[in-house]
Amino acid sequence: MHWVRFSVILFLLTVLQSTVAPFVAVHTIRPDFMVIFAVYCALCARTHDALFACWIIGLLIDLAGLSYSDRANVGLHALALGLAGLVIVKTRNLTFREGMASHLFYTFITTFLLTTVLGWHMLYGHGAWNRFGEYVMVALYTAAYTSILAPYGHWFLKQLRGILGIGPTHRMAMR
Predict the structure, then answer these.
(1) pTM of the model
(2) What's the average model confidence in pLDDT over 47-55?
(3) CA distances to 56, 76, 104, 139, 171 from 148, in Å
(4) Which domain holds residue 138?
């Protein structure tokens, strides 16, 4: 993977996430473009590159966000996306990496679990456990919205495969 080009694309996605996502929000439900990029990297990049890319994307989400209450959230996205990337890398050979169903499934599950874990952390910081069910519904809607946009994001990122330095996802053995 070409890490300088990866960093430039990641910077542009961060700007897109902070400027465009609020305008396309539906009742405060925003798509998460960074998760789409992390899932794409986990599905298509080499194993070590995919894990490092997911962790870097999570760390950038943490650094671009704000802490709440007296608890900082730096590192939580990095840990969660790193673990999600590990699960995707371990299970990606069981699915069609280029298939739309794989993009939808992995993006939905990753966004839902990431948003739920972060909601749990936020509610723990505020001591508002009675709102956890409400936050799970927000996570469900966010995951659905993000997964609807995932095939378009994956198509766009597939066009940038050469720029990112990501090779083909499968190779046929010739004898």
Answers:
(1) 0.88
(2) 94
(3) 24, 25, 7, 14, 29
(4) 3-17+31-161
